[in-house]
Design goal:
Helices cover 27% and strands 33% of the residues. The protein is an alpha+beta fold. The chain has a single domain, classed as Lrp/AsnC effector binding domain/regulation of amino acid metabolism (RAM) domain (Alpha-Beta Plaits), CATH 3.30.70. Strands 2-3-1-4 form a 4-stranded antiparallel sheet.
């Protein structure tokens, strides 16, 4: 699974509608409204690198109200949840 983190700038008066439309796109797993210089963060999860272009360039960027995006590809994930799950498998020293 390939994960892309997409920073989205949107028309301020349309942020809720833009977020909802992005969240409904195939390949988008989550959308967060955030503070700071960007308005939304979208998590895109796909099987192939080419699919990132399909989701971001061909669909997400064309959502009315999206003014700019910046995409970051994740290459390794670190998660407290993942570590806790590994220890709960019953593995003992």
């Amino acid at each position: 699974m390939i994960t892309a983190i997409v920073f989205v700038q949107a028309d301020v008066d349309r942020i809720p509608e833009v977020a909802q439309q992005i969240a409904e796109l195939d390949g988008v797993s989550e959308v967060y409204s955030v503070t700071g210089e960007i308005d939304l963060i979208a998590l895109v999860r796909v099987r192939e690198h080419d699919e990132i272009a399909d989701v971001v360039a061909d669909r997400l960027n064309k959502v009315p109200g999206v003014t700019a995006t910046e995409t970051h590809i994740a290459f390794r994930a670190y998660s407290r949840h993942d570590l806790e799950a590994a220890f709960s498998l019953g593995i003992e020293d």
